[in-house]
Design brief:
Layout lengths: L2 E6 L3 H12 L4 E7 L2 H10 L4 E4 L8 H7 L5 E6 L5 H6 L4 E4 L4 H21 L12 E6 L2 E6 L3 E7 L2 E6 L4 E5 L2 H5 L7 E5 L2 E4 L5 E2 L3 E4 L2 E4 L2 H10 L3
Parallel strand pairs: 1-2, 1-3, 3-4, 4-5
Antiparallel strand pairs: 6-7, 8-9, 8-12, 9-10, 11-12, 13-14, 14-15
């Protein structure tokens, strides 16, 4: 399995160091290097990228701002001379944080972390099993681990800006830094449906349907005009 990688840094020497490290590992497929964060943003949003080595202090758009603009977030390893940004970097769910000058041994440790996460995500993409007796599941990244969740255990999902709040049958919930598009690509389309900009529901758990909302247990979930027609057609109302 190759790890599709991009390097972003406004210092040519810093790019060359990480590039040489990447080229020493057969599993790293270096797709591109960028000194412009704006050009890099466009590329990442248009291509399948697994890993980004990303500087923080750059003109026009710093590394943390770039991460927040990405439609889909690959694994991020920050590379910077400023250790004071480490906490903020991890709050953005970065895989690792490397201080320049980056020792090769420390680089390898970061790649090992990424390898495990990319392998887990590749497994999570296949949630439909040909054996009907096997329950469908997905992996959800929450904080610093990937959690295996059975689709049948999800009642509904609520959007909280950059995060999704997944409500489970156990009464617990999981917060994950993601969006509905990424989540819906993983969930069974015959049971999960979007009813509002902020809600996706598992129709198996709907207790009743009113004019502009559905009831799941004691939770009243709005059905917006945007999704109402398609939703009612799906449940044959």
């Amino acid at each position: 399995m190759s790890i599709k990688t991009v390097i972003i840094d406004d210092e040519p020497l810093a790019i060359e160091v990480i590039k040489s490290y990447c080229e020493s590992l057969q599993e790293i497929e270096l797709l591109a290097t960028f000194s412009s964060p704006v050009e890099a943003m466009t590329y990442i949003n248009s291509n399948a990228v697994d890993l980004v080595f990303l500087d923080i202090e750059m003109p026009l758009l710093n590394g943390m701002e770039l991460v927040e603009t990405l439609q889909y977030r690959p694994q991020i390893v920050f590379t910077t001379a400023y250790p004071q940004f480490a906490l903020e970097g991890f709050e953005l769910d970065a895989c690792d944080y490397l201080i320049k000058p980056v020792p090769y041994k420390r680089f390898l440790k970061a790649v090992n972390k990424v390898r495990k996460l990319v392998s887990t995500e590749a497994t999570s993409d296949v949630i439909k099993n040909t054996e009907s007796t096997e329950k469908q599941y997905i992996f959800i990244k929450s904080e610093y681990e990937s959690l295996k969740i059975f689709a049948d255990d999800i009642k509904y999902v609520e959007s909280l800006r950059d995060y999704l709040k997944i409500h489970l049958t156990s009464g617990k919930h999981i917060l994950t830094l993601s969006n509905f598009k990424n989540l819906m690509d993983k969930l069974p389309e015959n049971t999960f449906f979007r009813v509002h900009n902020s809600y996706v529901v598992n129709i198996s758990y709907i207790n009743s349907i009113q004019r502009n909302r559905v009831l799941i247990d004691n939770n009243r979930i709005p059905v917006s005009d945007t999704y109402k027609k398609a939703f009612f057609e799906k449940i044959k109302m």
